[in-house]
Amino acid sequence: MSVEYEIQGLPISSIAQRFGTPLYVYDGEVLRQVYQELRGLLTPQVELFYSLKANPNISIVNMLREMGARAEVCSLAELHTAVEAGVDPQHIIFLGPGKSDAEITACIRYGIYAIVTESFQELELIEEIAAHEGRMMSVALRVNPSFSVKGSRLTMGGKPRQFGIDEQSVLQGKEQFEKYTHIEIMGLHVYMGTRMLEIEPIVENTRHILELAERIENELDITLRMVDVGGGLGVPYHEGEQFLDISELTEQLNPMFESFQRSHKNTRLFMELGRYLVGTCGMLVSRALYVKPSYGENFVVTDGGTNCHMAAVGTGSYVKRNFPIASLTRYGETPEAEYNITGPLCTPNDVVGKRVTLPPVEQGDLLGVFHSGAYGPTASPTHFLSHGSPAEVLIVGGEAFLIRERDTPEDLLGKQRLVQVSPTPITNG
Ligand SMILES: *Cc1c(COP(=O)(O)O)cnc(C)c1O
């Protein structure tokens, strides 16, 4: 029996019909559940910051803001997005290794809570701009710690990185930090890595960071007003990966935060999360344009390739591991054949899923790549072959809302300038 996939009672085919494909669909109910479950389990001492990098759509940011999330931004546009979504500037922090003059100036003028600095040279620039603006700026130090803990897919600590300032330099930086007149060094930020799916490394990271906070307070003789312990909590993508046990995790983290808070009553504690908050709520919906065999394998050529879902390519591992993929128009049917799911790009790398077992796929069927709410269009080469960004839809209260229009050829051409260069005449000297 053929059963169609539904989101909040809306059949996926009607959503695809209305908004076209390829299409990102976010289930607002799942977003709410994920946020509220974590918020309910985590000690209230810890404020949750949403890393816009994972999905910068303003409606997603707004929904998270309504539920109480703060914002961690890394570019001028992300800063504007957070402000326009209504995030209180005192709940915004700005970080990133390559901040421009314009970005630092905007942070100071908006009066955001803190700039997280990543180098001594950047401190000089913040001091200069703050003095010029006649303002005092709060600055947190992003520290590249001397410890590192295994278990992250991308380990940050204890090795040469372009991020942050090495722990040793920070601990020896007292004189340097004291000379500024328009900067207050008031916070610590450490981000240890991403896609963490095991409890122990997260707990160990956090323990180390809270200890580092105390060392910094002692060495620099300051009181920290904020400590951001990062996050990097993952979402399962591949076979064999499991959801983090969030209640076990918070059970282990909460006592550490609470005990830190008892001796640091005026320190705000932050955790910043991107993928974990938005990853599970989103799905890429694409349509099967053609189905064809080639040397014994089946290919489904869809309209949603890696140009809108680069993460599905699975860079960095030898064996391609698939995201969860299903037939949405034959959701109830038994998977019985293997298909390679490809897109419209003219490159053999445009493979969204390799040897995915699905019910028989026919032209016009809809396929879904699940757990795709984070690092979708934002981290994909959407301009490749000039296809442009896909449309994005948010489902709330059983209703579908367009939250990002699909790019048109006019959008893609609009920024280009046609320059008629006449051939240089050949002159005979
Ligand atoms: C990318 C990034 C995040 C978000 O990471 P997730 O794994 O998506 O939670 C948070 N903080 C910093 C500093 C980052 O670079």
UniProtKB/TrEMBL annotation:
Enzyme Commission (EC) number: 4.1.1.20
Pathway participation: Amino-acid biosynthesis; L-lysine biosynthesis via DAP pathway; L-lysine from DL-2,6-diaminopimelate: step 1/1
Report the InterPro entries cross-referenced here: Ala_racemase/Decarboxylase_C, DAP_deCOOHase_LysA, De-COase2_C, De-COase2_N, Orn/DAP/Arg_de-COase, PLP-binding_barrel
Which residue numbers delimit the Orn/DAP/Arg decarboxylase 2 N-terminal domain? 42-278
Q: Where is the Orn/DAP/Arg decarboxylase 2 C-terminal domain?
A: 23-373
Q: Which domain of life is it from?
A: Bacteria
- CDD domains per UniProt: PLPDE_III_Btrk_like (cd06839)
Q: Which cofactor does it need?
A: pyridoxal 5'-phosphate
Q: Which SUPFAM superfamilies match?
A: Alanine racemase C-terminal domain-like (SSF50621), PLP-binding barrel (SSF51419)
Substrates-to-products reaction catalysed? meso-2,6-diaminopimelate + H(+) = L-lysine + CO2
One Pfam family this sequence matches: Orn_Arg_deC_N
Supply the alphabetized keyword list: Amino-acid biosynthesis, Decarboxylase, Lyase, Lysine biosynthesis, Pyridoxal phosphate
- Family that this chain belongs to: Belongs to the Orn/Lys/Arg decarboxylase class-II family.
Q: What is this protein called?
A: Diaminopimelate decarboxylase
**Underlying gene:** lysA
